[in-house]
Amino acid sequence: MTDIPKTITEAAALLRSGALTSAALTEACFAVADRLDGELGTYISRYDETALAAAVLADEELAAGIDKGPLHGIPIGIKDIIACREGRTTGQSLVFDPAWWAGEDAPVVERLRAAGAVITGKLTTMEYACGLPDPSKGYPTPRNPWDTTTWPGGSSSGSGSGVSAGMFLGALGTDTGGSVRMPAAFCGITGMKQTYGLVPKAGCLPLGVTLDHIGPMTRSAADAAAMLAVMAGYDASDPSMPPGVSGQDYPAMLSGDLTGVTIGVERAHHLGRPGCDPALVEVFESAVAALGEAGATVVEVSIPYYDELALATMLCWPVEAFAFHRQWLAERWTDYGRWTRSVIGAGALLTAADYAQALKVRRIGKAALDELFTTVDLIVSPTCTAGAIGYDRLNWDNLMHTIFTPYWDAVGNPALTVPMGFTGAGLPLGLQIAGRPFEDGLVFRAGDAYQRLTAHHLQVPAMAATALA
Amino acid sequence: MDTETTVRTLFALAGVTPPEEEMAAFIAGYPATRESLATLYAVPDTPLTDGILVFRPAD
């Protein structure tokens, strides 16, 4: 069987050297899915036939000297709240409109496809990108390849587990309160929530419209940079995008050198919280030391309005989601999963004044954060308090006490998670790197520099190790 | 207005009727929600601040 390269970067080189074909790579990825998906619950729909046809076409194009860039011929999975022309978008819900974007690609998928990506299928999500698993609804229950008694995180669950297990080399997730970064951290991969408004969200089922981001999930920061370079840029279909906004050549910005970069280390709101894993402090401090080794100047900071902004995120999106789901909730309450209807239903209990106040607090918090960013270029913290949550203790309260991600959705700044080590139980821990709005390239540069000095991102779960080169 | 009446009224205004056992959970959790909201109203300088909806490079 064909060994699967661990990264897009490595696969792209092999495809161009002739040592690997996209067809063989895609078949190998599907073979991993054949073997592991029954246990991991990664896919909702697979597009074997169209994916293999796209892979063959990519091989023909590359052989003819037509090179569409680093994603050409690379297997990519799509979270099942984002429209793909091959099949319906379910949101992993019994309550969905089969005609919604039927037969069409979301702009972001269209961009990946135009760059030669091989779309392998649709991936499990928490229902409508929120809540927790409800097995009674008949969809797969996602599991973490590092320990299948644990949750892979969510809501981009299949995106996290599939990249980690080698079922594809990259995936699209979405992040409203941490749904890219938390599953990436739990699954030991890299995930990027780029600046709000940088990637078009049309064709993606909304959760919280002022907070939603479609982001890349990959094994390395360099791979995520390659994906975002394709995904980013203005599209008139998304009114939240600043007119004329464009992405950058993020891969070209990766130097491995952080000389001249000042990194603020955020310990005040992150370390010592209830539920922090015993290994967290040592693993985090080791990561900070590595950033210094890469040339960065490291200083201590305390981010402003931490609790208020995290709360604002978790209050805004249920209100925005309730507005979207109200009619269906009125008619089909029990068809929603029990966690989904609980958290979205709570949006009905906030007043318009509450929502407006949360928006004002976001504005004030963002201004204070902008001021802090005049003294530092990046801010780092752990992504979560601990490794993946076991299914035996998975509930909403535990989840809310585990994640350090919602703050960055409230302000819209870019935030990347990269693997930084493991708990004593062998579960991955994530390092969160945040930057100024539209300085996503510097965030990638720091993540990549860290990964050039460490190998945590190249560790693979034992159950997947035999398939991965 | 007491908590139970408030929660039932808000759901009625929204046009949604959760089953009774779930309504009980919403009622039980409502005071904590209001308490957390107080921290947002305690943030200074909010009355004259515009809510943020669009993020631009110049912000």
Overview of the molecule:
The complex is a heterodimer of chains A (469) and B (59). Chain A is of the alpha/beta class. Helix content of chain A is 38%, strand content 13%. In chain A, strands 1-3-2-4-6-5-10-11-9-7-8 form an 11-stranded mixed β-sheet, sandwiched between helices. Chain B is mostly helical and 59 residues long. Chain B is 58% helix and 0% strand. Chain B starts with a helix and ends in an 18-residue tail after the last helix. The model of chain B has no long low-confidence stretch (mean pLDDT 89). The interface between A and B is large, with 42 and 33 residues.
Present the secondary structure layout.
The complex is a heterodimer of chains A (469) and B (59).
Chain A: H1 8-17, H2 22-40, E1 43-46, H3 48-63, E2 75-79, H4 107-114, E3 118-123, H5 157-165, E4 170-175, H6 181-187, E5 190-193, E6 213-218, H7 221-231, E7 262-266, H8 280-293, E8 297-301, H9 306-332, H10 338-345, H11 352-372, E9 378-382, H12 396-400, H13 406-411, E10 415-422, E11 428-435, H14 440-453, H15 462-465
Parallel strand pairs in A: 2-3, 2-4, 7-8, 7-9
Antiparallel strand pairs in A: 1-3, 4-6, 5-6, 5-10, 9-11, 10-11
Chain B: H1 3-14, H2 20-41
Helix pairs in contact in B: 1-2
